[in-house]
Amino acid sequence: MFTVIGLMLGGMCIGFLLRKSRFTWIHNVITALIWILLFLLGVEVGGNRQIIEGLATIGLEAFVITLAAILGSCICAWALWYLLYKRKGGRA
Predict the structure, then answer these.
(1) All residues at 6 or more sequence positions from 86 whose CB lies less than 8 Å from its CB, including other chains
(2) Which UniProt keywords apply (predicted)?
(3) Within a 10 A sphere around the Cβ of 61, how many other Cβ atoms?
(4) Does the structure show a pLDDT above 90 at 35?
(5) How far apart (Å, rounded) are the C-alpha atoms in residues 3 and 68?
(6) Which residues contact 52 (CB under 8 A, 6 or more apart)?
(7) Other CB atoms within 10 Å distance of the CB of residue 58
(8) pLDDT over 80 at 90, yes or no
């Protein structure tokens, strides 16, 4: 845990020191690293027998949580829109 926090703080410090430099290529590097991490995560999950055997249950739970999160986000976004624009007589 301390290693992860130390690496994050170290990266923040280096970023702060180099903030005036232009790193136009860094977006491509970050994207490639994210794709590699996702691939390795898939390899790890695919190699875990317990996860593969319980995939139907895990998938159903993930689907329900996803639907609840989307519904909650839509309701909150609508409520905020209503409070900011409709209630005060503003134009949407």
Answers:
(1) 92
(2) Membrane, Transmembrane, Transmembrane helix
(3) 11
(4) yes
(5) 35
(6) 45, 46
(7) 14
(8) no
For the stretch 43-89, pLDDT in tens is 998 899 888 888 788 888 889 999 999 999 999 999 999 988 876 66
d(CA 29, CA 8): 17
**Residue in the structure block whose two tokens are 């949407």:** 92
Beta strands in the chain (DSSP E): none
Residue 24 has pLDDT above 90, yes or no: no
Report the distance separating Cα 40 and Cα 47, nearest Å.
Answer: 11
Nearest to 30 by CA among 2, 3, 11: 11
81 to each of 67, 68, 70, 71, 91, how far by Cα in Å?
21, 20, 16, 15, 11
